[in-house]
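Incident log, entry 3
Record: HTH gntR-type domain-containing protein (129 residues)
Problem: checksum mismatch between cached and fresh output.
Input:
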Amino acid sequence: MPIYRQIIDQIKYQVTTGVLKEGDKVPSVRELAARLAVNQNTILKVYNELCRQNVLKIERGDGTYVSSNKQTIPVAERRKTVSNVLREAAILAVQLELPIEQVGELLQKEYGYIVSQRASRRKTDLSEK
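Fresh output:
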């Protein structure tokens, strides 16, 4: 896979998982190119493609920002991200010889916990406004 596609996928992954949030400033073209040891034109191509997909927005003279939330990323790509993480969990479960039923129970428990935590945070955020 070309390096620019890998970088695009990584940035989308960070948006999907909430590492990068709407309004976050991303590194400049020069800074990210230096950090990843790639040509600046590669990063420019990445940023332009992500702008075309409405994941990033470039503010001339100010920088590049995450323009939207994870809903901008197609469902198929979000599913792929989750599938990749679940594949790693499945490998670990097989190595530890956990039955699929227990793995399913663990996933349901964790999912339920996270959903309830997010709901609690939203209530708190709304009550503080």
